[in-house]
């Protein structure tokens, strides 16, 4: 592989330092960062990177008192070339036969160069004037120089005969040639001949001159008058020309040819092999003898010890001279690239081959010198990372490398977004740049486990896996070509503290408490088979303080389980489960079982018995409504999915009677008598009702004597009733919670509540008459104690919730066993609110009022027939209600709550 011929040689590729405005400096060797070397027929000027100012360097040739800017085309025409690495180290080569060199008899050569360095803004210019003198007298008969941008050939002038066919008169007609430009015309062979006079050739980009002893021709590569030729499998660029010039003996001609390799490079096993033809046929007509072969780097010869120490090889075969250079040898350099956003490097090195051979007669010798920059194809170099994560320090640590010095880290992409290096350090994610002994570069990143960019998951119950996905955003400078590298760091720690559960009971409630573990409240809470959402939690008086939460669950709540029932108690259980729904596993559970008082059978002096049948957990398929007494026509007067309530007289429903010495026992049984006594199955797939049998009994004393008064008055023919006078009280109380086990006393008002906190109201009738029932007609709220004051807001309208209220009223069942007549109580819940006008709170207080209707359960007509708010099912009643019949008698009562304050 050769080098591109059409690049702008004068653009530096490095990131450069700023020196500021400076006055021109004249130097030969005074500045150690500017070094001139005389290398045979070349002068090399080395410019250290520390002198670079910006990204552009302008080189001028000093020609006496005039400076001439060397553009790329003029440099190729006149014998100048330049090479720089990515860091600004620059080499400028000048042929001793270049256009603007002061040539003293082809032995002493004075070279003057002016270096102008521009900053990014082009406002600051630093100029260095350099003068170097080289001596060179070992000129071969023919010297051929192949530099990176031009081919040069020079011949020693010899006395020759006049050109055949030209007379002396014709020779006198040739224009006088000056000392610098003595060539009259040239004929180029491409291979067809093309003739030009000296001025035409110069305009075409060629250079020709006559020195005191030599004829010089120079051509850039790839001109119309050059051509390619394959020599021993190596492509060569050939420049062949006949130059006519006038000397004291008349018109003379010299046939000149240069051939320079443009290929011949092989890459294998991390080694560069450069092949140059041993016999360059365009330059040889017959036999020849190779006298010297030298290898060099950057235009300078290396001796055998230097070649061996650096791992180079110089060898010859029958057809080739071969130079081998290991990829990465110290005389070359690497450069970063990022095609398709993937990191690659190339290696560039500039070997030199110098050969001296003699022709068959031994009189003519040729010095052949080639400077040949070689750049490898792209070499993939995926970044590597070193994971130094410390679980003891709870810190992710990673080192990313290896990069060349022309790579910079610009940003890092985390799961939460992209952060610059400065933003990373500001957040405590420490980013640092490191340089190793071999001058490669790496970047380290430190991120704490607890940072918000770290993902956490739990592959095992007590183990936390910390995951840090990152993508490093990098660029190659100065081209600003972006690429990235993504990696994911993992660390496992057995650091999970699970939540814990505790619970106690009183006579009617479970009191459950949950202490959060190390993962906070990141779990689901289940009570029985019910997922406790925010709405459900409110029903159980949910309280939370950041480290704990607590619940109050009535024993007869629908989410508890009944285990055992006796005649005077029930054993209930609350199953609380904390569930990790992401990993599908239980974090903690509590099975709290307690015994609560419950009278299942009541015996009344009027010969009536009532009994409650309870569905226990072991009878999962039991339907309480299908239970009967011994007389299967005696069914529950009320049932739901957990209870069946029976009410009957002792002389009915198959009740048996047994006498003892001083008492009598009435006994019956609750069970599935029709299913148990039937031998017919409707379907084999229909499971039979579970076995259930509950014996109920009442005892009455038979030898007890009681005195009663009896009065008799004969009645007349007309029957009449007398109107009795009395007073029925309806009251409203505010309960502490949804269990309604206790209520605020009068002296505790005013009560303070938060906005939207549930308020639990109990409106009830104080009466011992089992035939009376209380229904709610209308309920509303006011700012003042006067129920007729304004503003007001309806919460119950005609026994139904207010549809215009965004936070509607919730009717609650009456499940308190302490209440003798549940149908004389109405429970409902309202969320705390306040009155607002024009977005301003009027007052931080509120009163509630209700109109209640008292009905005779034996007569259900008129207003007593409403059933909007109170469907006749288990949700709002307690076993014992008889909803059949009609009403024709009612009475309304007004009741109000105490003052309730809004707490901010």
Automatic annotation (TrEMBL):
The keyword Ligase does not apply. It is found in: Cell membrane; Secreted. Keywords: Cell membrane, Disulfide bond, Glycoprotein, Membrane, Secreted, Signal. Residues 1-22 form the signal peptide. The keyword Transport does not apply. PROSITE patterns: ZP_1, ZP_2. Residues 602-871 form the ZP domain. It comes from the Eukaryota. This is Zona pellucida protein AX 1. It comes from Takifugu rubripes.
């Amino acid at each position: 592989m050769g080098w591109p011929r059409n690049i702008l040689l004068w653009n530096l590729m490095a990131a450069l330092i700023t020196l500021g405005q400076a006055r021109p400096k004249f130097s030969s060797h005074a500045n150690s960062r500017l070094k001139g070397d005389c290398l045979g027929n070349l002068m090399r000027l080395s410019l250290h990177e520390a002198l670079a100012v910006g990204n552009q360097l302008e080189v001028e040739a000093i020609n006496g008192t005039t400076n001439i800017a060397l553009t790329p085309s003029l440099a190729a025409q006149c014998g100048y070339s330049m090479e720089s690495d990515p860091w600004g180290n620059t080499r400028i080569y000048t042929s001793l036969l270049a256009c603007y060199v002061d040539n003293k008899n082809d032995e002493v050569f004075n070279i003057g160069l002016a270096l102008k360095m521009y900053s990014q803004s082009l406002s600051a210019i630093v100029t260095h004037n350099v003068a170097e003198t080289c001596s060179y007298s070992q000129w071969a008969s023919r010297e051929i120089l192949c530099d990176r941008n031009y081919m040069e050939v020079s011949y020693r002038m010899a006395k020759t005969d006049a050109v055949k066919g030209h007379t002396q008169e014709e020779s006198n007609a040739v224009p006088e040639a000056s000392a610098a430009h003595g060539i009259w015309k040239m004929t180029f062979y491409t291979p067809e001949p093309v003739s030009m006079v000296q001025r035409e050739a110069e305009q075409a980009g060629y250079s020709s001159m006559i020195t005191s002893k030599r004829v010089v021709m120079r051509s850039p590569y790839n001109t119309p008058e050059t051509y390619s030729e394959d020599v021993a499998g190596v492509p060569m660029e050939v420049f062949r020309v006949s130059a006519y010039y006038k000397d004291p003996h008349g018109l003379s001609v010299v046939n000149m040819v240069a051939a320079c390799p443009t290929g011949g490079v092989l890459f294998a096993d991390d080694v560069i092999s450069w092949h140059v033809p041993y016999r360059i046929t365009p330059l040889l007509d017959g036999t020849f003898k190779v006298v010297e072969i030298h290898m060099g780097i950057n235009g300078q010869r290396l001796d055998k010890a230097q070649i061996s120490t650096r791992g180079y090889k110089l060898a010859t075969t029958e057809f080739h001279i071969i130079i081998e250079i290991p990829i990465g040898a110290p005389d070359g350099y690497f450069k970063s690239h990022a095609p398709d956003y993937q990191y690659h490097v190339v290696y560039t090195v500039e070997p030199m081959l110098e050969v001296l051979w003699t022709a068959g007669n031994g009189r003519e010798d040729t010095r052949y010198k080639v400077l040949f920059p070689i750049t490898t194809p792209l070499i993939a170099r995926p970044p590597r990372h070193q994971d130094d994560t410390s679980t003891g320090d709870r810190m992710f640590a990673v080192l990313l490398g290896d990069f060349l010095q022309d790579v910079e880290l610009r940003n890092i992409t985390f799961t939460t977004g992209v952060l610059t290096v400065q933003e990373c350090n500001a957040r405590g994610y420490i980013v640092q740049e490191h340089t190793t002994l071999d001058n490669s570069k790496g970047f380290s990143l430190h991120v704490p486990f607890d940072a918000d960019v770290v993902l956490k998951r739990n592959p095992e119950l007590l183990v936390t896996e910390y995951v840090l996905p990152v993508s490093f955003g990098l660029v190659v400078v100065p081209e600003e070509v972006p690429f990235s590298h993504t990696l994911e760091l993992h660390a496992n720690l057995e650091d999970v503290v699970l939540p814990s559960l505790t619970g106690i009971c009183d006579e009617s409630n479970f009191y459950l408490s949950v202490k959060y573990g190390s993962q906070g409240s990141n779990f689901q809470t289940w009570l029985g088979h019910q997922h406790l959402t925010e709405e459900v939690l409110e029903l159980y008086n949910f309280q939370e303080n950041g480290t704990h939460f607590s619940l109050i669950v009535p024993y007869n709540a629908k989410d508890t389980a009944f285990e055992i029932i006796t005649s005077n108690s029930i054993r209930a259980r609350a199953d609380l489960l904390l569930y990790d729904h992401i990993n599908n596993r239980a974090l903690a559970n509590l099975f709290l079982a307690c015994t609560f008082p419950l009278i299942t059978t009541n015996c009344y002096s009027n010969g009536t018995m009532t009994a409650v049948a309870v569905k226990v957990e072991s009878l999962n398929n039991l339907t309480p409504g299908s239970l009967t007494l011994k007389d299967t026509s005696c069914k529950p007067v009320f049932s739901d999915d957990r209870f069946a309530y029976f009410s009957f007289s002792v002389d009915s429903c198959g009740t048996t009677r047994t006498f003892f010495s001083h008492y009598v026992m009435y006994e019956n049984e609750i069970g599935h008598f029709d299913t148990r006594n039937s031998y017919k199955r409707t379907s084999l797939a229909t499971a039979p009702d579970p076995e259930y049998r509950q014996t109920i009994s009442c005892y009455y004393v038979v030898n007890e004597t009681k005195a009663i008064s009896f009065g008799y008055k004969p009645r007349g023919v007309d029957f009449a009733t007398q109107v009795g006078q009395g007073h029925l009280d309806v009251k409203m109380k505010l309960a502490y919670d949804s269990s309604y086990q206790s209520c605020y006393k009068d002296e505790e008002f005013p009560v303070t509540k938060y906005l939207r906190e549930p308020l639990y109201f109990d409106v009830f009738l104080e009466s011992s008459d089992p035939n009376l029932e209380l229904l709610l007609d209308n309920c509303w709220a006011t700012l003042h104690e006067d129920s007729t004051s304004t503003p007001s807001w309806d919460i119950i309208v005609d026994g139904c919730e207010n549809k215009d209220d965004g936070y509607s009223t919730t009717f609650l069942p009456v499940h308190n066993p302490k209440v003798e007549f549940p149908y004389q109580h109405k429970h409902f819940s309202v969320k705390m609110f306040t009155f607002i006008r024009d977005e301003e709170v009027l007052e931080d207080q509120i009163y509630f009022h209700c109109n209640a209707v008292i009905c005779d359960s034996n007569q259900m007509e008129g207003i007593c027939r409403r059933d909007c708010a109170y469907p006749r099912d288990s949700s709002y009643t307690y076993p014992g209600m008889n909803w059949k019949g009609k009403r024709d008698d009612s009475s309304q009562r007004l009741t109000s709550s105490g003052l309730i304050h809004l707490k901010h």
